[in-house]
C-alpha cells in the first residue's frame, strides 16, 4: 500500500448560490496533485478537536501542515498588531494537536508557510505579526505580485541539514507571507535564510523529531521545479520508512 499523507485542512464560506453562509472544508489542490505525483495517497484532515487530530494521525504515515490564516498572537504572548489579518483559533488548536500527535507517533512532518509558523509557536517561539511594518527597510518583497509558481528571491541553505540534500546550498523560492519567525522556538534550528535575514526553513534539533518546515510554498512550484518536487519525494520516502518501522 502507498504511504498515506495527511494534509491539514481549513474552512471557508461556501460561495455557491443557495449555499451562502455554509462552511466548506478544503485544502488547496496543489498539495493533492503533488502528493499523488510522488506516489503517495493524500487525505485531507478537516479541522476538528484535539481528539479528532489524534485519531486522524493514527491513520497516516506523514503530515503536511499547510498555509492559511495568521497565527493567533495570543499563543506567543502578544497583543494583535494593527495589520494582523484573519485568525482561526480553532484551527490553531487543531494544528497544534496534529503536530503533537505526529511527533509522538514518530512520523515525518512537513510544514508550509503558516505550517512553519505554527511549529515555531508550538515550540515556544514568536512571529513578526506584520513584516512590512515591523522588520525594517532592508526587507525584501515577501508578497510577490508575479504568478505564484515563479521563484522570486534566493535563499541560502545550511549544508548540515536535510533541506540541503534536496535543494542544495542556494535556490530561489516563491514568496507570499506577511508574517515570519521572530524568535526561534526551543529545540529548533534555522536552516535557510533569505538575504534580508528572514528565516526561510527550520528543522528539529532533536534527532527523534523528523520535521522540515518551509516559509515558501513548494507545492506550487513542484510541478515545474525538481528541487521542490524532491522535498515531497523525500517526505514520501521518510513516510515509507516510518510506516515500516511502526508496522
UniProtKB/TrEMBL annotation:
TM annotation in the entry: none
Gene Ontology cellular-component terms listed: cytosol
SUPFAM superfamilies, sorted: Class I glutamine amidotransferase-like
Gene Ontology molecular function terms on file: gamma-glutamyl-gamma-aminobutyrate hydrolase activity
Organism field: Jeotgalibaca porci
GO biological process annotation, one example: polyamine catabolic process
Protein name: Gamma-glutamyl-gamma-aminobutyrate hydrolase family protein
Keywords: Hydrolase
Superkingdom, natural source: Bacteria
PANTHER family given in the database record: GLUTAMINE AMIDOTRANSFERASE PB2B2.05-RELATED (PTHR43235:SF1)
Keyword Glycoprotein appears in the UniProt entry: no
Amino acid at each position: 500500500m502507498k504511504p498515506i499523507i495527511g494534509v491539514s485542512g481549513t474552512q471557508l464560506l461556501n460561495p455557491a448560490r443557495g449555499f451562502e453562509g455554509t462552511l466548506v472544508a478544503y485544502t488547496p489542490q496543489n498539495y493533492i496533485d503533488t502528493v499523488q505525483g510522488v506516489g503517495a495517497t493524500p487525505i485531507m484532515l478537516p479541522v476538528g478537536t484535539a481528539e479528532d487530530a489524534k485519531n486522524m494521525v493514527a491513520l497516516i504515515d506523514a503530515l503536511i501542515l499547510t498555509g492559511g490564516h495568521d497565527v493567533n498572537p495570543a499563543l506567543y504572548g502578544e497583543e494583535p498588531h494593527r495589520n494582523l489579518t484573519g485568525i482561526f483559533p480553532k484551527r490553531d488548536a487543531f494544528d497544534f494537536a496534529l503536530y503533537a500527535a505526529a511527533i509522538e507517533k514518530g512520523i515525518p512532518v512537513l510544514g508550509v508557510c503558516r505550517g512553519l509558523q505554527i511549529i515555531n509557536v508550538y515550540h515556544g517561539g514568536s512571529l513578526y505579526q506584520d513584516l512590512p511594518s515591523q522588520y525594517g527597510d532592508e526587507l525584501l518583497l515577501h508578497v510577490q505580485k508575479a504568478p505564484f509558481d515563479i521563484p522570486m528571491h534566493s535563499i541560502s541553505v545550511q549544508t548540515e541539514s536535510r533541506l540541503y540534500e534536496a535543494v542544495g546550498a542556494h535556490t530561489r523560492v516563491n514568496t507570499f507571507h506577511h508574517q515570519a519567525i521572530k524568535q526561534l522556538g526551543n529545540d529548533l534550528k534555522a536552516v535557510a535564510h533569505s538575504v534580508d535575514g528572514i528565516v526561510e526553513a527550520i528543522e528539529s534539533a532533536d534527532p527523534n523529531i523528523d520535521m522540515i518546515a518551509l516559509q515558501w510554498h513548494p507545492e506550487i512550484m513542484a510541478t515545474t521545479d525538481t528541487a521542490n518536487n524532491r522535498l515531497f519525494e523525500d517526505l514520501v520516502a521518510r513516510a515509507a520508512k516510518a510506516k515500516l518501522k511502526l508496522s
